């Protein structure tokens, strides 16, 4: 990855001219074991192979001694004085710095790449396993030095403080989950939590707002406090808020990587209106390039670049409003000569920025633009308080700026807008380079110094701490300049300008002061670039890795805890599921068996009851008085009706029996239901009376038995008796029947025998005819007399025969048994459904638990890796020491 940054990126490729440095991009790291293995590198646009070779030789020979004057100034420890002094080997020092810078940049780029991977992974994980956002309690951590109510632009990643204030480097305060479920044994993931009531709060105590710096969720909605709001938030909302934070962080990391891999350094020269920004810029260039005026004149951003970036052609590219500048694409800008710059810059509405390509003929150790180390762009901005839009634009641009040079008028000191800008800039930039211009106009210089430095200490304490290097009192107009617009450096307005000799000495002093400031600025841009450019990336990385580590630790705990819980749950569910399945099968068999048994019993009972009822219908006493011969037919009808009614009653009795059996069967099923399914079976209601509601007279309509004359004669009995006495002759038989009533004999045969004995056989022959008549009469009388006895069996037989034809017994038995089956099936089916349902529910629960288990295992593994990798990444970033001097330089 690092090759990308050193071979292809940055501004070098913009030049169409081949550069020596373009060939030297295969290495960017200083070897740990010394400088002998140093290869080549890309160093801005000016370092030649001659420089590299020289650096290597020098390092090989004098590795320990550094560079002549590179020993730190005793008064300014940490601020090397080597750079900028040709006699002290500045180019070599610059090269060393560039190599060291590249090394740090490569490390940071790698770390950013890894942090991006971690964040992308976390975002994916958060989609499938919504992450817990922890609440924490922490020991008081004093906030960094930034003022509490600092106005202006804030940056999320700056809330933990910068590298120098022990913020991210100090061990993070111990986190302790205060309100999440983790401390309880049953901490759950979001998914499982759905099954739990009430859901544990997923975040947040207000402390989290202080603990997390980048992934902190800003929850503000109406009058709701953060805690209230969080409790009202559903877990997925929190996950999506977190997702938004992660995405923003990913974007910011990408832009940070682009920024640090950009080999150029952008120096923004800003300050109050008319403070002398353009004059200072021109003095740095030693050319009057930018228009200066006593009245406000700079209305657009003028970015001054080395002409070599524009094929060594000096010209101005005025960028069209709304266009993104592309030097290759001329449609994005208009070309002007340097002489025409003034008309673009002053009172112009057509452009908001221009690129000014200038040649700097000074040597690389003198020139800022052509410094041999890094491409520098000087951006002259409109005055801060010129108008609100421009002021806002300056505030916004400072994010892409590596170094801020703030020009303040020695006469006016810091205005309100100046203070606001510095507050905002200090949030990201550790240091600000302050130029107090127009110092020549101040009479009481010491007082001015003191007042300004006091103000600086309030605005940027770190800058104040190194004020000797970072705060300069100069007179920019005293520096001789040439180029378009003529030369300056007059010092004519010096109030002390008495005699010429003294004036010259003063002018020389002013130029010296300016050169000192210039050298400090070179050091600041070239050497402290690591701080100005890399420190924000490092700070941000530490903060985001710290947040990720915290989040990972908490979520690892939650995932583990959830894993334990689901494992326990599975242990409970699995045997429950087995027994539920077993119960379902057993109970199903049992209820089938119960139904079959009950139905069989009911069928058999109905069959036997009805069969015997029909069979003995003729024997039953129906309590019907025989009305005599003339009412015999009616008697037969009544008898039939009574018999059928009797049979119908038997059917009703069988139905009652069936009802009782149904009640028993339903109750048995109910008990099984209560036992295996639950209380819903307690409310099972069964109404047996609703069974067999069909009309009971249906049978009378089905059976149609006409009464016949023969029904009144019991031929069977009659013939049996006749056979018994066949030998005594017909006459006797007949005679015997003559007087049955007179002598009170019990049967007509007995009477006939009696008559035979009385009349003798001789006479009998003469009596045959009358005897026969008598016999017929007697038989008829007998038949009539026997009707109440002979009719019932006869009718019963006929009914029985017809019912048999109708298959009455079987069909009724089947009907009743079927009704019972139907009744019993209702609760049985419910019970089966209930059992099936509980098996299904348990099965579903098991499936869900297995799924949660899988997710928790995955989450646990993922977060445990994340804990490790974020920690190791954080250590890697901590090891990038931007304050350490590069190899070969000592403090
Ligand atoms: N005496 C004195 N005058 C200065 C000095 N620097 C700049 N000036 C004068 O101050 C006036 C404004 O200077 P500019 O460089 O145009 O100021 P500026 O900040 O760029 O102005 P705007 O861009 O319009 O905000 C000019 O007339 C300069 O000659 C200085 O050090 N001493």
From TrEMBL:
Record flagged with keyword Nucleotide-binding: yes
One of the record's GO cellular component terms: mitochondrial outer membrane
Region Disordered, annotated ranges: 1-43, 134-175, 476-511
Biased composition (Basic and acidic residues): 17-26, 498-511
Protein name: Dynamin-type G domain-containing protein
Keyword set includes Metal-binding: no
Gene Ontology molecular function, alphabetical: GTP binding; GTPase activity
